[in-house]
Every structure is written in structure tokens, then in C-alpha cells.
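Handout, page 2. Input:
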Amino acid sequence: MSYRNRVALLILADSLIVVCSIFAGRFILDTYITFEDTAILTSSITLLVFHHVFASWYKLYMKAWEYASVNELLAIFKSVTLSIVATAIVQEVVFHNILIRILLVTWLLHLFFIIGSRLSWRLFRDTYFEGKKDKKRTLIVGAGAAGVMVARQLSKSRDSELNPVIFIDDDTKKHHLQVMGLPVAGTIKDIHRCVASYKVEHIVIAIPSLSTKRLNEIYLECSATQIKTQMIPKIEDLMMGKVSVNHVRDVKVEDLLGRDPIELDMESISESITGETILVTGAGGSIGSEICRQVTKFSPKKLVLLGHGENSIYTIEMELRNKYPNGPEFVTEIADIQDKDKMVSVFGKHKPNVVYHAAAHKHVPLMERNPEEAVKNNVIGTKNVAEAADLAGVNTFVMVSSDKAVNPTNVMGATKKAAEMIVQYMGTISQTKFVAVRFGNVLGSRGSVIPLFKKQIAQGGPVTVTHPDMIRYFMTIPEASRLVIQAGSLARGGEIFVLDMGEPVKIVDLAKNVIKLSGYTEEDIEIKYTGIRPGEKLFEELLNSDEVHDKQVYPKIYIGKTANLYINEIQDVISNLASLPTDQLRDSLLGIANHNVKVKHEVVSS
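Output:
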């Protein structure tokens, strides 16, 4: 129905209701009171006019009544009451008498039929056109504001396959009550019982402010029922406007293994980024591209996307241009950080204020087999970028490092440790503030185990895990990127910033979660142990014993003490790179990284 036809129909219906209400009131009271026809006719016309006046004032003809709530009902109450009061005033002025009883009955009938006319179609539609018999009986965890919104949305949506039948909430004050006509049947511990009692076929977790720990506990209870479980977005996604509260999605492994998000110091970050030129190396990678997304929100003057792979740089450039058409100037530079002259040229041309150095080789087994490439990219490349930043007068240089740089047993970790030493050394001889940011494994990044697990599950298994006791620290890509950006605003020069990573996670538990979230059981998908790969450790560390500093410089962010810097030894490795055998190169790198330089330096010099 068009808007005009809809308004015309409502005006006609309201007119009939108003006239019928006052004459019905007269008919009801006619036995007891005699009224003059003139008074009744005048009152009906007056009431009709004032009803339309106040209905227009409160926009009763512009509301979508299929979404009616308390606010809409309150608008009807005000409109009807004021029209009755206005009619009473006219009666007093014209007839010097107020027909109190008839106006009271008219008010009751008027209010009842106006509300009934607005809600009748919604009730009729919900009853006969929603097809609830074909929908899955759904349990909603959380009877708060978000849970009510989800229940309302699912109930009125024709496209949804879910029909809410029950709430679960830990607030005992809500137990034995009904919310949206649905019973609140118990606490989280009662989920298994309620699933059986109410024949539940689907579960939705509707608490956007859940901590990761609590989400784990709830999901554990839900998964024990073998019922498909979904959730609404987390509070930070809702606040940023990425999604709405009724956007139900599958629970992801990132939700279970990620941690509560870090609150950023927006003011200090804005001071260092807003209106400035920012350069990101490795801008096409998983961490680099997310840094670009986060940085763009702070309105820099120019964002330079530097990377070696043209396809990945093109992808992030197009994404940012489409999402921020009126945003900063986006400049792409296809360049290899191993090319020092090119780095000096790019930095000299753009004169960035802040540099985020995310370009690196990070696959442990590949770097074990190709240590010289790890040196070229992670060590020489970092040295080139750092020296170019110094020459260009960059204010802050932030290097993305890894927990594998602590007591490394592999080439990749050793080269990242050497890169940290270079960055810390540059901080002692340059006006630029050089810092490194160290964190653990990043969920969903290139090289992460999760994409591998998902691929193996899609192929029917088995899921391969190197060792049953293998543990790692995990964080999400956005969290890692925010840490890098926050570190830049905290930098004074020479620091190694470390995130409080929480409790480490067993890789086998991660595999089990991915299998479960993919809709399978461990009986369906086998977990196979393949043995520790060359260079791997059973656990990782975030700080070496001589770097430990207990004080937090920011919530959940620690700073490591400066360790010994073996710049001459690193330069020896770089100078002799072409002539060093692979084994000697690996031993030399590990000697430098583990502060056992005396023996290893003799190897390099021999």
C-alpha cells in the first residue's frame, strides 16, 4: 500500500472510531441521562477535529505499527486524552456544562479501538503469516535488552529460520517470569535440561558485553547439548556500527581464544597520527593491512602502503578507497625492503611522521630451510628501513616483532631478535624514536594454524598437530594491530612493548574447537600427531629473563628492559652472508639471539 493510501485509510478508520465512540457512549448512558442532540453532535465534531489535530501532532499516521512498542502506545494515549480534554473545554465554553460521564466512556472506547486498530494487523500477521511451524525452536541466552531485541527480530522476521521459545539468564530475579511472552527458565547451568524440556533445536547467545572467559564457559555448556550455537556481535563491533544487534552469526574460534579488547588511548594516538603522513611496510599482509585499516580511522593526511606483492597492495588500496572515499590520500609503493636505495628514495619522497614496519618472513619451517632469505628480509630489510627512517627524519618507528625472538631455537626467531637489536641500536644514535612490539601467534593471519585446520577438515581430515603438549599464546589481528598503534603513541625510544597475552592455549585444544565449530565431532575428524618440526619449541615466551620489567606502562601492555645489543656481530653476519655455509649461518644467528656471542662470533670470523 502506498503512503498516501495508508494515511487515507487510517484517517477514515480513526474518524469512524471517534464518531462511533461518542455515540456509543451516549447509547450506553441514555438510560440514566438525557442528552440534547445538539450537544452530542457538536461534541462529536469537536472530538473528531481535535483527534486529527493531536494525531498529526504525535505523528500517529507516520508510524510503522508493525514495530509498535511502548512509545507508540504512549503517543496514542496522549493523543486520545488531549482530544477528550479539548472537547470538555469546548463543552464548558459553549454549553456551560461538561458531560463528564459520556466523555469518560467515550475516552475508554476511543482508546481501546484506536489501539486495537493499530495492533490487530500485526497480531493477525504474526499469527497466520509467519510460518512458525517451519522454524527451529530457539533458546536465547540472555534476557537483557539485547536478548529482547533478538527475540523480537526473530519473531517478526519472515526470512528467519529461528523461532524463540525460551530465555536463559543468570539473573534469578527474572526466573519464573515471561519476557516477550517467553519463559525465563533457568541459569546457564540449566541449558542442557531446558534444551530437552523445550525441544530446542537452536541456541543464540545474546549478550554482547561477554568477556571471552565467560563466553567460553557458556559455549562449553551449549556445545555439550550437540545443538548448533550462534551469537550476536560483540559490543565493540556494535559500538563501531559494523553490525546490528540482530545480526546472528556462528561462534568463531577467535571469539573463544581471543581476549577482552584493549581500550585505546584515543587522544594520544590522534596526536601522533591525525593530519600526519603514515607509512606501513608489508601493508598487504595480514597485520600490515589491519594496521592500515586502524590508522585510517584516525584521519591521517597521507597513508603510504608499501609492499613487495602488487596484488595484496592493490587489494588493500581498493578496500580503503571504497570504504573511505573522502579519507586521506592513499599512496602505493611497490618496493622490496631489501633494496636500500629504494627505501631511502621512498622515505625521502614522502617524509613520513610515523612508520609501522610489518614486512617480514615469518614461516618457521621455511626459514629453517632458507636461513639466508630470513637474514635478507628480516635483518637486512629492517636495517634498510630503519636507516631510511633516520635519514628522512621520521618521528616514530614501530617494528612488529614476535615472541619467537625470545630464547629462539629457530632461524626466524633469531632474525627477529637481531632485527629488534638493530631497532634498539638505532634508537641510541638517532633522533627518531625506535621501538619494537612483541606478541604471540595471530589468529587468522597468513601462516596461522586455523586456516590449515579448516582446510584439513573440509577435506575430511585428519587434522595435524605436531605435539599434544604444544602450547602458544594467541591474539586476534585487530588486537595485534591496535597494540602496534598504541605502542607508537607511547614510544620514547628503545623500548620493546609486550602485550599481556593471558593464558597460553594448547594447539590440540584449538584443533578440537575448530572441529567442533565446523559442525563435527572428534569421532568424525581424526587428530593426528606429526612430531615437532625443525626449530619449533613446545612453548613460547614473551620476555627473556634479563628483559623482565613487571610494571605496566598501559593497561595490558608491558615494556621489556633493553638487553645487550650485538651490532658488530650482526654486521659480521650480513657481511659474510654470501660465504657462510647454512649451518654456520644458523649457529651464528642463534648465538647472537641467545647472547652466546663469544663462541658464535668466532665461527663467523673463522
